[in-house]
Design goal:
Helix content: 55-70%
Shape: globular
Mean pLDDT: 82
Low-confidence stretches: none
Strand order of the largest sheet: 1-3-2
Largest sheet: 3 strands, antiparallel
Distance between the termini: 42 Å
């Protein structure tokens, strides 16, 4: 078995880059809240982040058929979600609007002016592509709690 210290740093950085995940999350939040004034549920932002990171598909049925890929990204990101939210909040890139909520997926957030400024000034092609994919998914596959649960594997709302 490979131990973590035997893996080259460049490979570790590629697959375990917390800062990259934070910025990807912030790009998605920015994309969602660009033309929206209401608070954003963490689970909704997570839905868009995961779908934006997955290989793009044309039809919703292909996403349903590929639940394992969604679940892989979900559990990988969900593991760090609390730290991502706290880091972005501490940097004043987002605000948490219902801090008393104990379920992190039900927390509500807003991107701050500072967060908007950081993202709007990014000229990185991968972040711009992530923003474009998020906007496309918002249009083609808008968030629905039943779909989110189905993709997570919680229920089978699409089975007969």
């Amino acid at each position: 078995m490979l131990r973590k210290n035997n893996i080259p740093k460049a490979i570790q950085f590629l697959f375990e880059n917390f800062n990259l995940t934070c910025f990807q999350y912030l790009v998605v939040v920015y994309s969602i809240q660009l033309r929206r004034r209401s608070d954003l549920l963490i689970q909704e932002s997570l839905y868009y982040l995961i779908l934006s990171l997955m290989k793009p598909y044309d039809k919703i049925e292909k996403f349903i058929d590929n639940k394992n890929n969604f679940q892989y990204f979900y559990y990988k990101i969900e593991n760090d979600l609390g730290n991502i939210i706290m880091s972005l909040s501490n940097l004043n890139f987002i605000t948490i609007t219902n801090e008393k909520e104990t379920d992190k997926l039900k927390l509500k957030i807003n991107i701050t002016k500072k967060g908007k400024k950081i993202i709007s000034e990014l000229n990185n092609s991968s972040f711009l592509e992530l923003q474009n994919r998020t906007n496309l998914i918002k249009k083609e596959m808008p968030y629905k709690i039943t779909l989110f649960r189905e993709l997570k594997g919680e229920n089978n709302v699409f089975s007969n």
